[in-house]
Amino acid sequence: MLKGLLCFICLAFFALPAIAEVEKTPPNFSLYMEKFCASRPYDCTDNKIITPHLLNTFLYEFYLEVETFFSYQGFEKAEFEYCASTDCLEEGISVKNSKYKITQIFPRKREYYRAFGGVNRNSGVHFSKALTEEEANSWCSIQVRAGNNLSSRARRAIQKGEMSLWNLKTKHYKKHSLAYVRYLPQINALDHKSDTTEDQCWLRYKNKKIIFELKETSR
């Protein structure tokens, strides 16, 4: 089970356009584990793999590093997929003065392995930031991701030549917010880069969202 966690298939990570002016190196899962084991050798095996009883503690501490990196990049909110269907803790309601920077709802420390998918490894975190009109028009296309539907008015506007997601929002989705979202599929996904990306633009109102693809020029 533990070895399966350490063999995650890492997905995309590309720099978010123009949010952070100064480069910051993302935390590395393997190096952080080495550092963790160096400070707590009795809690790791001989090959520097954390023993199961401290795995959740390690994942929690590493997530704080990941969250700090995303916060530095300009992201304003972090949402665990796990917490959409599971009872989690909430800053200011069930917990006060947590160590998180941009995560308002989060798993209990003993649940971190499950929060990132456990054996199945199919659960991650969405990091998001609100978009200005200029950012929305520069980065977001009006191409809706498969499985998402637009209102009939929005579809007609596109058929008539509307090319701005910001205009669609202001005219047809006035109650919705518009956000740039980066999906972290696994906790160690920052370790590698590939040719795919998990960046999206969201129109969202409460728990409902419409996902749009990025423009090719922003990929």
Question: Would you spell out the secondary-structure blueprint of this structure?
Answer:
Elements: H1 2-6, H2 29-39, H3 55-72, E1 77-80, H4 82-85, E2 89-90, E3 105-106, H5 112-115, E4 125-130, H6 133-139, E5 140-144, H7 152-159, H8 165-172, E6 177-184, E7 199-205, E8 208-214
Antiparallel strand pairs: 1-4, 2-3, 4-6, 5-8, 6-7, 7-8
Can you characterise this structure?
With 219 residues, the chain is an alpha+beta fold. The protein folds into 2 domains: 27-130, no CATH class; 134-176 and 189-197 and 209-219, no CATH class. The protein contains 8 helices and 8 strands. A 6-stranded antiparallel beta sheet has the order 1-4-6-7-8-5. The radius of gyration is 19 Å and the shape is elongated. Mean pLDDT is 85; it is low at 1-16 and 18-22.
Question: Which residues sit in consecutive blocks of at least 5 with pLDDT less than 50?
Answer: 1-16, 18-22
- The tally of helices reads 8
Q: Give the proportion of residues in helices.
A: 25-40%
Major beta sheet, strand line-up = 1-4-6-7-8-5
**First-to-last CA distance:** 35 Å
Strand content: 15-25%
Core attributes:
219 residues, alpha+beta, 2 domains, 6-stranded antiparallel beta sheet, two-stranded antiparallel ribbon, 8 strands, 19% strand, disordered N terminus
Structure at a glance:
The chain has 219 residues and is α+β, with helices and mostly antiparallel strands. The chain has helices spanning 2-6, 29-39, 55-72, 82-85, 112-115, 133-139, 152-159, 165-172; strands spanning 77-80, 89-90, 105-106, 125-130, 140-144, 177-184, 199-205, 208-214.
